[in-house]
Design goal:
Blueprint lengths: L3 E7 L4 E4 L5 E9 L9 E8 H10 L5 E14 L6 E16 L12 E3 L1
Parallel strand pairs: 4-6
Antiparallel strand pairs: 1-3, 1-5, 2-3, 3-4, 5-6, 6-7
Length: about 120
């Protein structure tokens, strides 16, 4: 089973793009506490699609705390400059719980859940 759940803070504002097919994609790095060294968090790349990505772009910013549930994905490619094989690990979010945000439009949306 490929399932992960993380709680952390956005390390930067999310990057929002729209694919040629019209799908909204949000990417961001999540700073997750490291139990072995509290001064060095784990930096986890996260990608969300569709309505979840749209909500992330509208409501989240650097420093906001979120809970992410999803699956781990890997991708591989050959670096065009060096010819070396590269790989990337990221979490494809199924749900993103907005645990605290400073730029929400109202208190009724304090805890918003976005689901693909």
């Amino acid at each position: 089973m490929n399932t992960t759940t993380l709680i952390g803070r956005l390390a930067q504002d999310p990057d929002i793009r729209i694919t040629t097919g019209g799908t909204t994609v949000a990417t961001f790095r999540l700073a997750v506490p490291n139990p072995q060294d509290k001064d060095k968090p784990n930096w986890i790349p996260v990608k969300a699609l569709g309505k979840t990505a749209e909500a992330i772009g509208e409501y989240l910013a650097k420093g906001n705390q979120v809970g992410v549930s999803g699956r781990i994905e890997t991708s591989e490619w050959d670096d065009k400059e060096t010819g070396e094989r590269r790989w990337k690990l990221e979490v494809l979010a199924r749900t993103v719980d907005f645990l605290n945000t400073n730029n929400k439009p109202s208190d009724t949306e304090q805890r918003e859940e976005a689901t693909v």
